[in-house]
Specification:
By secondary structure, the protein is of the alpha+beta class. The protein folds into two domains: 93 residues, no CATH class; 61 residues. Strands 1, 2, 3, 4, 5 and 6 form a six-stranded antiparallel beta sheet that branches. Helix 3 runs antiparallel to helix 4. The longest helix is centred in the C-terminal third of the chain and has 21 residues. The relative contact order is 0.19.
Length: 184
């Protein structure tokens, strides 16, 4: 997934479905050396304590062009001078994210599922999104909702993951690779 390259009307419409008065903004990614990948809520409190500023909660907006758009619950750092930065290392290095601040949300330690919207009427895309939701639900049943770390896949998770991977390959053949934005 990658951030939308341009904030087009469909991106604003998607953001409006999440936040009443959306103000998405591109935020530079400056990963903290040695910090865990994709763990914004575990690294930001100590970063704020050491450097000042504040944690800003919202959503990272990602898309697979022509396939689907997705909001991932996320937090960034507001530097004491007001500039927003994303210090969280990513699996694939990217220069920026599209961030949607959400002043009504708080982080409570529980996993929050991504919000997904197909960008085409292809039933395979809807099924792919539904499987992603099903996987999140399975991976966060009961005590797993507050667990952070590796989990052992159940038989149900393995079935969901297999079908999702098969659909992902089908969607790549139809719509092209799902590659990150490597340059601005």
């Amino acid at each position: 997934m990658r951030p939308p390259k341009i904030i087009k009307p469909y991106v604003i419409s998607f953001c409006r479905s999440i936040v009443a008065e959306p103000q998405p903004i591109y935020v530079p990614v400056r990963p903290l050396a040695g910090a865990p990948e994709n763990e914004c809520f575990s690294i930001l409190p100590s970063h704020v304590a050491q450097h000042g500023g504040e944690q800003v909660i919202g959503w990272a907006i990602w898309e697979w062009p022509r396939v689907y758009i997705e909001a991932e619950f996320h937090a960034v750092w507001r530097h004491p001078d007001g500039q927003l930065l994303d210090p969280t290392p990513k699996i694939a290095p990217i220069p920026r994210i599209l961030f949607l601040p959400d002043p009504r949300r708080n982080y409570t330690g529980r996993q929050v599922d991504n919000i997904r919207k197909p960008l085409d009427r292809d039933p395979a895309i809807k099924r792919f999104c539904d499987l992603s939701t099903a996987m999140h639900r399975e991976q966060n049943r009961g005590e797993l909702a507050v667990y952070h770390g590796p989990i052992v896949f159940t038989e149900t998770m393995q079935r969901i993951d297999h079908e999702r991977m098969e659909l992902g390959m089908l969607l790549q053949r139809r719509y092209g690779m799902n590659t990150p934005e490597l340059s601005v």
